[in-house]
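Appendix B, record 7
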Amino acid sequence: MDYRRIIPCLDVRAGRLVKGVRFEDLKEVGDPAEAAAAYSAAGADELILLDITATAEKRRATLDVLRRVAAVITVPLTAGGGVRSCKDIEDLLAAGADRVSIGTAAILNPTLVLEAAEEFGPECITVAIDARPSAKMPSGFEVMVHGGHKATGRDAVEWADQVEDLGAGCIVATRMDADGTLGGYDIGFTRAIADAVSAAVVASGGAGKLEHLYDAIVEGRADAVLVASIAHFKKFTIRQMKQYLAGHGVPVRLQRHAPPRYAAPSQQ
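Structure tokens (predicted):
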């Protein structure tokens, strides 16, 4: 059975879980390890942990936060932020990540994706594509880097095809101006990337209703959906998301994972 996945995203700044709108106006949500443990226990299929200021601050991701999160979950974990070399990837994997997400560095040095896929395996390498609408691009979307602040002149769909050729096993496709709005994923953008690659595609940016998850998977052909605000602010639980999808014919894993190693806020 080819299950579709629910993946909470944990954006971290200065060791704290934060969430913004369109990559701006960040608000503190809580402790990333506590949130991760709760999501893991509630049945999330995977987690993504991003040190969102690492690239802008020209530093590596904070490994201490990664270690704390990895210690209290029982699901696969993707980590990212500030990745510039295979050594950075190796350190993230050693600290507890199962996969590593590369964004800005992939654009600046595409060879890094190739080298990383060869050294660690495509299943360990995710490329994050943050994009905004642009009439200058063939697909209508331009890749942005440095936390969404710098345009690249690269078409998002063409870039997705290229990074798959380089060996990326997964692509997280985010429409920046939908991020945190609760207005829904950009289905056209998601589907354009999903149609261009055979790698797993994670829809990202804008989930606010249960219908949005369904649309991204069925209409957008995403293999998984990234969730943040819709989960962090308790609009819906992971169980509610999965029950809705299952009730509408989308194959999901409904069984619960093992409990976390310490008490955490319930997602019941």
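Remarks on this record: The longest helix spans residues 32-42. Confidence is low (pLDDT under 50) at residues 257-268.
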